[in-house]
Structure formats: structure tokens, C-alpha cells
Specification:
By secondary structure, this protein is an alpha+beta fold. It contains 11 helices and 3 strands; from the N terminus they run H-E-E-E-H-H-H-H-H-H-H-H-H-H.
Length: 180
């Protein structure tokens, strides 16, 4: 079960207003859809300019496992919920976050808590791509720090590279890290 510290509306205000880089205000939005009849599961979404760019839920990870061929084709067309989730738990345990491009709602909440409780530099250098995501959008990260991340950003997942480039563009930085 995903747990956000405090209320979602308060956390959303924190992410979109208090900590979001000024250059991204009005462009970045967070959503949470909860499923109370399903053990309080949630789906968190990151929207940029009104378009959903990333979702965080068990279903997105499960769909990723199927698309990657990590889960049997039968699992893509289940006869019941038990069959649908049969291989999921083993795959989730065996496949670290750094080897995936999709993440659960619980991983989202854990990364958000870590980001909030550690220095911004630790979040930027974290092995956890979600902690890094929150840090890239953070107002405490300036142009010099963004430029310093250029070399290592090539090793990040494509979705995280896109956020990095979005932030650089919003700050008026060209590809080489210089201000335009």
C-alpha cells in the first residue's frame, strides 16, 4: 500500500509550488488516482504541459514486464486476478529499479520520502531514478548543477533524460550547458 506523508493535496502543493523550479511552474503537475477497493492502491502520474509523461503503479510495472517478454504471454490474457499477478511478485523482487523503466506506487512514495529527507545533492546522485527525478525538478538545482550532470545523464533511462533536457531548456541552457 502506497503511503504519502500527510495528505496528497499537501504533497502536491509541496511538489508543484514550494519545491518546483520557477522555470517549470505551471508546466509540471502531479496526479494521484486511488483505488480504495483494491487495498488502497494508487497510480501517481507526472504531467508536463497537460500530457502524462510517466505513471507509477503496479499495473505499469506489470505491463512493462509483459512488454519486455519477462512475463509469459498467457499472463497478458489472464483468466483471473491470481493468474494475472502470479509472476509479478517474483519479477519485482528479481529486477532492481535501476534495471527497469517503470515503477510502482510504493517505490514512488519511498523515493519521495527519501528526497524530502536528504540533501538535494544526495538525491541528484542517488542510484534511485525516482529520487533523481524529484531533484531534477527542484528549485534548489541551478544551472551550474544541471550542467555538471551532463556527462552522467547519458547513462540514465530515456524518460529521465527527457526530464533533464526539459529542465535545461526551461532554464535557457543549450546542449553544451551554456546559457543562451
Amino acid at each position: 500500500m502506497a503511503k504519502i506523508e500527510g495528505s496528497w493535496s499537501g504533497m502536491r502543493r509541496y511538489l508543484e509550488q514550494e519545491m518546483l523550479a520557477e522555470s517549470l511552474r505551471g508546466r509540471v503537475r502531479w496526479q494521484c488516482v486511488s483505488f480504495p477497493d483494491m487495498d488502497e492502491l494508487c497510480m501517481f502520474s507526472l504531467l508536463i504541459d497537460g500530457a502524462t509523461v510517466k505513471r507509477f503503479s503496479w499495473e505499469t510495472v506489470n505491463s512493462y514486464f509483459i512488454a519486455q517478454g519477462m512475463k509469459s504471454e498467457e499472463a497478458a490474457h489472464p483468466r483471473g486476478m491470481r493468474e494475472y499477478w502470479k509472476e509479478f511478485w517474483n519479477l519485482l523482487t528479481q529486477t532492481p529499479m535501476q534495471e527497469r523503466t517503470e515503477y510502482t506506487d510504493e517505490e514512488f512514495c519511498e523515493a519521495l520520502a527519501a528526497y524530502r529527507n536528504q540533501p538535494i545533492g544526495e538525491s541528484l546522485q542517488s542510484e534511485n531514478p525516482l529520487e533523481r527525478m524529484f531533484a531534477l525538478l527542484d528549485r534548489r538545482v541551478g544551472k551550474r548543477r544541471l550542467a555538471a550532470l551532463e556527462a552522467q545523464s547519458a547513462a540514465w533511462p530515456a524518460w529521465l533524460q527527457s526530464l533533464y533536457h526539459l529542465r535545461r531548456a526551461a532554464e535557457g541552457m543549450d546542449v553544451a550547458g551554456d546559457a543562451r
